[in-house]
Write a structure and sequence with these properties.
The chain is an alpha/beta fold and 387 residues long. The protein has helices at 7-11, 16-24, 44-55, 68-82, 96-108, 125-131, 151-157, 180-192, 249-262, 268-280, 282-305, 330-341, 367-386; strands spanning 31-32, 91-94, 114-119, 135-140, 162-167, 196-200, 225-230, 243-246, 318-319, 343-344, 346-347, 359-362. A seven-stranded mixed beta sheet has the order 2-8-7-6-5-3-4, with helices on both faces. A three-stranded antiparallel beta sheet has the order 9-12-11. The protein has a two-stranded parallel sheet with strand order 1-10. Helix 5 crosses helix 9. The mean pLDDT is 95.
Length: 387
């Protein structure tokens, strides 16, 4: 019998995050600091709008690209928050930001096209490039640069086959952000080399020092950039599975073609709830951001006081402490911490090889849970330093 499986799919590694937490889920009394999910409930007025849409029988397909009212609200929101100007034809509503990443790459790549992927980063970019028959080019970022993509780094990875640069900022797992001056340097290289950008801005609302800046807002970049965003992180709507992509009409049109064949449309109930979120959810976002910021500052201080060097994250809700001094790999440290103290974190290598020597800790958890986890981490450190 011939092998029924695709060679490309067989070569893709399972998610390092899910692999690790499948183990944690088999254990009792685990304090989990690993899942990238807000610990807030979706605000009630947003849930209520979803419920109301069901009560009114709004349970049919929408247009492939999404409800017109939602696309208009997305365009209004992006202009109001990030000075981006799009019309309805440039907006596609997707099943989470992950679908937008997938179909964006599939719409733009031919076999052999290279995609620059700065790491550490979200786990989906590399497999999505491979599934689109592209060639992922992993570009390690460094703590000394604040885990930012520099012009020098980018130039070092470019070839004649480079087509797309992924910009994963604010970054998962490091919490790094790119300021306007950082993006301007990258934008000049993009234009000079006639490249395109896939800018994943799902954590744009969770920026703690200054406002988020999108590379698409810079001169000459709107026509070269697909912006990915969504509702999961900023509005605590992970289970609603709703995201969107905005960009040049000719690219969005091809993304819609893929979307209509494999998805049809995003969940109708979620789309009505998202309209409410964009119209009236600013104060909810602000409250959640303030809470995350408090946890961020608490965790940075505590880890540094514990002699665990910690880069200060400026966005998202993750921290990326350096544990190289303990003489263990990231996976060994995380596995032993889980087995001995029942605290679950993610090895840095789940986000690329350059994550070795680091852990990802999510602070999408209460201060009380963070305190309990830190006590256990201190106990674990005391044990290993004694041996």
């Amino acid at each position: 019998m011939r092998n029924p499986l695709s060679q490309i799919v067989r070569e893709i590694e399972p998610s390092g995050i899910r692999k690790f937490f499948d183990l944690a889920n088999t254990m009792e009394n685990v304090i989990s600091l690993g899942v990238g999910e807000p610990d807030f409930d979706t605000p009630w007025h947003i849930r209520e709008e979803g419920i109301y849409s069901l009560e009114k029988g709004k349970t049919f397909y929408t247009s492939n690209s999404g409800l017109s009212e939602l696309k208009r609200e997305i365009a209004t929101y992006l202009e109001r928050r990030y000075h981006l100007r799009y019309d309805e034809k440039q907006v596609l509503v997707t099943v989470g930001g992950s679908e937008a990443i997938d179909i964006g790459l599939r719409a733009m790549l031919d076999p052999g096209d290279e995609v620059i992927i700065p790491e550490p980063c979200y786990v989906s970019y590399l497999p999505c490039v491979k599934l689109a028959s592209g060639v992922p080019v992993r570009l390690p970022l460094e703590e000394k640069d604040g885990f930012k993509l520099t012009g020098e780094k980018l130039r070092s990875a470019l070839t004649d086959k480079t087509k797309i640069v992924v910009l994963p900022f604010p970054n998962n797992p490091t919490g790094a952000v790119m300021k306007k001056e950082d993006l301007e340097e990258i934008a000049e290289i993009i234009k000079e080399r006639d490249l395109f950008v896939l800018s994943d801005e799902i954590y744009s609302e969770l920026t703690y020092e200054g406002e988020h800046v999108s590379i698409a807002s810079l001169p000459g970049m709107e026509e070269r950039t697909i912006v990915i965003n969504g509702f999961s992180k900023s509005f605590a709507m992970t289970g609603w599975r709703l995201g969107y992509a905005v960009g040049p009409v000719e690219i969005i049109r091809q993304m819609i073609k893929i979307h209509q064949y494999v998805i049809m449309c995003a969940p109708t109930t979620s789309q009505y709830a998202a309209i409410e979120a964009l119209k009236y959810g600013d104060s909810d976002v602000e409250k959640m951001r303030e809470s995350y910021d408090e946890r961020r500052r608490f965790l940075v201080k505590e880890l540094n006081d514990m002699q665990i060097p910690c880069f200060e994250p400026k966005g998202a809700f993750y921290i990326f402490p350096n544990i190289s001094r303990f003489g263990m790999t990231s996976e060994e440290f995380a596995t032993r911490l889980l087995n001995q103290e029942r605290v679950a974190v993610v090895p840095g290598t789940a986000f690329g090889e350059c994550g070795e020597g680091f852990l990802r800790i999510s602070y999408a958890y209460s201060i009380d849970n963070l305190k309990k986890a830190l006590e256990k981490i201190q106990k674990f450190m005391d044990t290993i330093l004694e041996t």
